[in-house]
Amino acid sequence: MQTIPFFKHATLREIIITRLCCAANIVVIVGCAGYLIGYYDAAGLRWPWLIAALLLGYFLADLFSGLVHWVVDTWLDEAMLGRGIAITREHHSHPSHVLLYDFLDQASLGAAPSAVVFGIAAVVTAQFPVSPLTYALMVIWFVIATCMLFGMSFHNLAHWPVRPPLLRIAQRLHLVCSPEHHWRHHRDHTVRYCVINGWANYPCDRLRLWSRLERLVAATTGRAPRADEATWERKLGDAGVVAGVPQRAA
Ligand SMILES: [Zn+2]
Ligand SMILES: [Zn+2]
Predict the structure, then answer these.
(1) Distance from the alpha carbon of residue 186 to the mean position of ligand 1, in angstroms
(2) pLDDT tens digit string along 181-197?
(3) Ligand 1 centroid from CA 73, angstroms
(4) 243, part of any domain
(5) Which of 82, 148, 198, 217 fits a disulfide with 114 by CB distance 3.0 to 4.6 angstroms?
(6) pTM of the entire structure?
(7) How many helices (H) and strands (E) does the chain have?
(8) Is 41 helix (H, G, I), strand (E, B) or coil?
(9) Which ligand places an atom closest to the C-alpha of 74?
(10) What is the pLDDT of residues 110-136, one digit of tens each?
């Protein structure tokens, strides 16, 4: 079984880019947190709505993680995203290797799109007079941006070979994505894209959202989904899929 990740080496340029992506998303998280602390009294959002906003944010974070994962798996290739794509393709053929990369190598994949989308969302929200609605929206942006920084970390919990009892309880309660839930993506790369808690996989897969979007994108652009997948599987070898089956903790 291969235990050395294939793309561990990063150039200085790649290291700087991954750090900048993560730093940009941290700026968004801190900006949202500053707003939430500063305007807590002025906004007057009652706690049942605060909990609803937190839960909605946690669901939307899962959905956004699925969207990013779908785009990366289906439409991006090495020419567009370089080492980031290589690491994600390696994860499909050699799942356990993902645990051997550094946090920053993986966090940037979720942090970059999050910083752009929720950075803009937070700035636009802050332009409006403070109200319970703007406060609830900022809670949602804060939760999504935070979860996206740790998106791969959430995902990686499903690949831990030995899981502490508290994690297993959280996974069984679907508070975070479980190995059983996530592993279907490794058998079929067209489903179960959402990796934070898996909540959004139920509506997305039931509605066949991703395959419908694929047909739409293919029809409008003429591009084929997952065009480089066979090449990567050949390049990385196909033995890793069996070798990487997560061990089920007793
Ligand atoms: Zn994938
Ligand atoms: Zn995985």
Answers:
(1) 7
(2) 999 999 999 999 999 99
(3) 6
(4) no
(5) 148
(6) 0.90
(7) 14, 0
(8) helix
(9) 1
(10) 999 999 999 999 999 999 999 999 999
